[in-house]
Amino acid sequence: MSMNSSIPVASGPRAFDLPVVAYQGLPSTLCKGCGHNSITSALIDACKQLGVNPYETVKISGIGCSSKTPAYFLQYSHGFNSLHGRMPSVATGALLANHRLRVIGVSGDGDTANIGLGQFKHVCRRNARMVYLVENNGCYGLTKGQFSATADLNAHLRRETGEMNGVPPFDVCLEAVAAGATYVARSFAGDKKQLLPLLKGALNHAGTAVLDIISPCVTFNDFDGSTKSWDWAREHEEPIHEVGFVRRLPEIEVEQPEGKSTNVQLHDGSWITLRSLAHAEHDVTDRTSAMRLLLESTQAGEFLTGLMYVDTKRAEYTAQLNLGDTPLAHLPDSALRPPREALDAILATV
Fold first, then answer.
1. Which of 74, 160, 170, 243 has the highest count of CB atoms within 10 angstroms of its CB?
2. What is the Cα 249 distance to its own chain's centre?
C-alpha cells in the first residue's frame, strides 16, 4: 500500500535544489564502526531524495549517544537537545507552536524504553506528527555500557564483572503498536537497502512514525581475550591519557532477503538473528496481526524487521485539536491576548 501521506508545508525556502552538503552536518564524534553513523548516513540520503526542507524541519533528541545525531544531518535546521527521556514532550510542544514544522526526533533505547517510556507511550497515543527514531544498542553507551530495558535476556556486560541481565526486554515496536503509533517499523543499521525506504515512508507519514533500528555498540565488548578490551589496548597502543579510546572497527553491513532469517555476527563475536518481513505474510494495516507477529518473533529469538504497522486514516494530534491554519507561533499579540473587555464579558457569565 502507499505510504506517501502528505504533510503541511509552510511557505519559505524550498529544499529541492539545495546541494548535498545542506543535508549533512558536523563530522561524527561517535566511535568508529558505531551503527548510529550508518543510520545518519541513511537519514541524510532519505532527506535528500525526498527534498526535505531543512528550513522547516526541527531535530530534537534526549540524552545518550543517540542525542548527538541531530548535529550530524540537516545542518541548516534548528536542533534541540532536551533532558533524558523528555524528547517527546519538547517535540509535541514544537508541533503545537508551529504545526507546519517537520519534526525528527532521535532517541536511544535507554532514553526511550527506560526513563522515557511514559513519554514515548503518550506521544504514540496522541499520534503527534513526527518521526521517532530509536537507535537501539541494548546498553547505555554514554555511561559505560549498563543494560538498558531492551537488553537481551541473559546478555552479559562486556566488563570485568560479567554481570548477566535477568530481566526480559521491552520490544519497542510492540510498545509502539499497543500505544497507538500509526507507523511502526524495525530495521538494522547496516541494512541500508531496507532502512532507506522505511525512513522515507516515516518522513512522509502524517502521524507518529516509530523506527526501532538495531544499532550495535562497538565499545563495550570489554572482556578477557577481546581485542576491544582495555588490557589489549594498553598493551598494543600508545599510553591512554583519556578514557574514551575505542579501536577503529568497520561498520557492520548486511542485506536481508525478504521473508528469510539472517544471522549477523557482532564485533564481540556474538550473533543476532534478523528476519525481514515478507509482504505476503502480513497485512500492515492489521494492528492485531502486527502484535501477534512481534510476539512470535520474540519467542523465536528473532528481530523481525520491516514495516510492522501503518494507519493512514487516524488524524494526527494537531488536527485532532482543530488548530487554525496559522501556527500559534505566527499569531500576533492581538490574537493571543484578548482585550480587557473580552475578559470582563467572560467573567460576567460566571
1. 74
2. 23
DSSP 318: H
pLDDT digit string (tens) for 19-30? 889 999 999 988
- Tell me how far apart the alpha carbons of residues 64 and 62 are, in angstroms, rounded to a whole number: 7
The rounded mean pLDDT for the chain is 80
The residues that bridge with 309 in the sheet, in sequence order, are 184
Helix axes 172-179, 117-126, angle to 10 degrees: 40
Cα(7)–Cα(5) distance, integer angstroms:
7
Nine-digit cell string for 232: 589489549
Taking 70 as the threshold, does the pLDDT of residue 121 lie above it?
yes
**pLDDT digits 0-9 by tens, 291-339:** 998 888 888 877 788 898 999 999 999 999 988 889 989 998 888 888 8
Helices (H) and strands (E) counted in the chain, each on its own, are 11, 11
Give DSSP secondary structure letters for 261-312: EEEEE-TTS-EEEEEEPPGGG--TT-HHHHHHHHHHHHHTT-EEEEEEEE-S
Alpha-carbon distance of 79 to 123, in angstroms, equals 19
Q: Are 97 and 115 in contact (CB under 8 A)?
A: no
Cell of 97: 507552536
Residue indicated by cell numbers 523481525: 304
